[in-house]
User: Fold this.
Amino acid sequence: MGAVKSKRVPRAVRERQMLDAAVLTFARRGYRAASMDEIAELAGVSKPLVYLYLNSKEDLFSAVIRQESEALMAAVTAAAEPGLAPDQQLWSGLRGFFAHTAERPYGWAVLHQQARAHGEPLAREVAALRADMVDFVTELLGAAAKEAGCAGELAEREVAGLAHALVGAAESLAEWSNVPAGDGASADVAPPSAQDTAATMMNFAWTGLGRLMGGERWGWSGLVDQEGCARAGR
Assistant:
């Protein structure tokens, strides 16, 4: 019998293997300490093949950032169900966000830590992802403010700031809850589920937003009861 030829692995599959190996290596070692030899070995390919497919270490890192950014935004967009009330859309979007970062903690570590530390132009790519997240949340908060009958001052001036604050809090919470096992997480403490983390975020953010939209404001002398949004809209 003649020799049986081994099945050739499609380029797209090989590239995905390399990118996944690179995600793990960059997250664990950092960009500068990560080696192409280690990435190639983890991917099960030769180092020359990595260079053939992805040109250089910097190009490989850029490809990792694009892959993880697109996957995260796609997960959030897919989870947020259009047509629901703004708080329910935010709730479902947060669950998608925390579920994705829990499933790919090393990808989140590369996006949230390594890319920003590496500087331009990669930090700019991560900033673009964050801007998309902020735009998404701004739209939901603006819709909620209008539903509550809030004055245009809240809808136009404060919603963008609130969205930035909420996205920043979600990023910090994801970093806290998704420490990969063996990278500082206690083996005796199970990480919170994506749903529990999203509920923590909603309790922190939306409950306070509800009071704000109900007319309560913090002042220098404490909480100030102002004309409520719902009342103002009547």
